[in-house]
Description:
The structure is a single chain. This protein has helices at about 50-60, 180-185, 190-195, 220-230, 235, 240-245, 255, 285-290, 290-300, 300-305, 355-365, 370-385, 390-395, 425-435, 440-445, 450-455; strands at about 5, 35, 40, 65-70, 75-85, 85-90, 100, 115-120, 120-125, 130-135, 140, 165, 170-175, 205-215, 260-265, 270-275, 310-315, 320, 325-335, 340-350, 400, 415-420. By secondary structure, the chain is of the alpha+beta class. The protein has two domains: about 65-180, Rieske [2Fe-2S] iron-sulphur domain (Rieske Iron-sulfur Protein), CATH 2.102.10; about 190-435, Alpha-Beta Complex (Naphthalene 1,2-dioxygenase Alpha Subunit, Chain A, domain 1). The strands form five sheets. The chain has an eight-stranded antiparallel sheet with strand order 14-20-19-18-17-16-15-22, with helices on both faces. Strands 1-12-13-4 form a four-stranded antiparallel sheet, with no helix packed on it. A hairpin with a 3-residue loop joins strand 17 (about 310-315) and strand 18. The longest helix is centred in the last third of the chain and has 16 residues, at about 370-385. The chain starts with a strand and ends with a helix. The relative contact order is 0.17. The structure holds FE2/S2 (inorganic) cluster and fe (ii) ion (FE2). The site of FE2/S2 (inorganic) cluster has 9 residues, from loops.
Amino acid sequence: MSSDSSNTSPANQAIGTMRRPPLSRNIDVSTLVDADKGLIDRSIYTNEEIYGQEMRRIFARNWLFLAHTSQFQKPGDFFTTFMGEDPVLVAMDKQKNIRAYLNSCRHRGVRLCRADEGRTKMFTCTYHGWSFDLAGALQSVPNQDAYPEDFQKENWGLIEVPSLAVYKGLIFGSWDPDAEPLEETLGDMRYYMDAMLDRDPEGTEVVGGVMKWQLEGNWKLAAEQFATDWYHVNMSHASALMVLSPTGKGPKPEVVATPGRQYLSPKGHGAGFPTHPKSRFDAAPVHEYYDYDALRERLGDERVEGPLTTGHATVFPSFSYLPVNGSIRVWHPKGPDKMEVWAWILVDKSMPQEVKDAQRLYNLRTFGPSGIFEADDGENWSEVQAISHGFVTNSVPLNFQMGVGSEREDGVYPGTTSELYSDAAGRSFYRHWATQMNTPAWHETQHKTAEDQAESDQ
Ligand code: FES
Ligand SMILES: [Fe+2]
């Protein structure tokens, strides 16, 4: 598959062709995020209009994680997912290119493919029977002779996600036809991601299907926590840590006080990790499988002693991962108050089956839908959300002040870093969020006639 392919099909010309009156106003969010002082207004988690603006300016603009390349082996393999609330169908075409389409029939808009995943030659709509091939072209229309003569099938192909790129097995798509290259958007974040994606020359694959569950809570509560929040680990996960600790007593004080770093990206990504020379994977067979000398050779001592194992990360806006158990996940927004978590389990392709199994089981025990850590996190987010609509509650700002002023280049880890216990990556996550929320996206600046412009300026 080519990476960074940019494609604008004739069908995509349909985006925005109907002239619409202004259906929504844009809210200036600059006073809701004070990234310098570390203050966040709670309305960004609850307000319907802000949520709508996120759909337009965050999710219809950014590179979003769609799937892993190992999910597509043969032409016709497909997987259905979402970009924001837009349903998307990812499929391998006859030339073995992975492509993504809006999963909505061009006729009357029903979801074209309702299966989660599978293999097919054609996508046939269950409503009236229009059929589309793997390249998104409309191939057959029942009773076509009843349509006007100027009806042309090529104008009614699937809307294609115009920008698609792969980073070490991770497939990302963007609705922006002129999206900056994915690698540029990731920047230094690649160094931290490679601690999970590039341990082995053969790369990674996903095992065991995709786990999906819903949580009450705004999607940002999860995305931001995975970017910045090691702080909650010792308190929120105290009982889980006790269960896992050999003594049954939970983490020792020196573990709680462990040194570490947190990376913050100007593009809103974040990653945090303790640093200690005795890095190890928590699933014993995985720990025993790895040749740490080889890993040090491949990734460097600092990366093995830092982001390789324990840690957390978010690629802005909504893709997060945990290197220790290969959990990669998307926080799909489902309204301001709800998110759907989709989680995959990532392993090295070259691992023996029993090591892959051990990683999968460890992942399920800890961060599966009923994992002992996952349950703690979901409980926190839904607790925050449940009370956030109270008028007074909603008007009291939240605190992101830990480590204010600690951001610097540390000379060891790339980019700007802070301490392990810090809100620095959270502040930069929201700083970037606010910038994007206040900046028109591609669909607001392209395809505009002078007439449209005059109307929106009024
Ligand atoms: S909605 Fe798909 S064929 Fe009519
Ligand atoms: Fe957690």
